[in-house]
Design a protein that fits this description.
Strand content: 25-35%
Distance between the termini: 40 Å
CATH superfamily: Gcn5-related N-acetyltransferase (GNAT)
Number of domains: 1
Structural class: alpha+beta
CATH topology: Aminopeptidase
Largest sheet: 7 strands, mixed
Shape: globular
Length: about 170
């Protein structure tokens, strides 16, 4: 029997290349066929290792999940950007490499992000997800999120609805 070990920790500068790889794989898997190809490719290419290294150096709150020595997922979090909502904290992104989805790592990363927001004194949580991203909707509904608001994101002229999930 093989034992898989994992750790959730704050991102470090030497994680930037692996986070960029997770970002590319996860975004391609989640958004191909939803976000227009050209816009998706530009968004992915903009977030290479240098971008992630800069984000980590700027003290952005980025947590990674590491399995057997490899970064396989990440989350970015901080203050809620939608001031019309009462929640103080927001998870901006939570992604895993597609081959590591369904193992419970996303749930653990989500819980760690919520705890980190609480530790920072941010009460309540909001997460936005594209309405066409069925996997994300299912994940956040399954974790008790309440759909309370909608918005629109425009990608290369294509308007896509997004949904806000909240937790107390």
């Amino acid at each position: 029997m093989n034992t898989l070990t994992f750790d959730i920790r704050k991102a470090e500068p030497n994680d930037a290349n692996e986070i960029a790889g997770v970002h590319e794989a996860a975004w391609t898997g989640a958004y191909a066929g939803i976000i227009p190809h050209k816009a998706l490719a530009l968004m992915i290419n903009r977030r290479g290792a240098d971008w992630w290294a800069g984000a980590i150096r700027r003290a952005a709150t980025i947590l990674v999940v590491e399995m057997n020595g490899m970064v396989v997922g990440y989350t970015t979090l901080g203050r809620n950007r939608a001031r019309q909502l009462d929640q103080h904290g927001e998870i901006y992104e939570l992604y895993l490499r597609p081959e590591y989805q369904g193992l419970g790592l996303g749930s653990r990363l989500f819980a760690a992000a919520r705890n980190k927001l609480r530790d920072h004194g941010l009460k309540g949580l909001v997460v936005w997800a594209l309405e066409e991203n069925a996997g994300a909707l299912s994940f956040y509904q399954g974790h008790g999120g309440t759909d309370i608001a909608e918005g629109v994101e425009v990608f290369d002229g294509k308007a896509l609805k997004k949904v806000a999930f909240t937790w107390p």
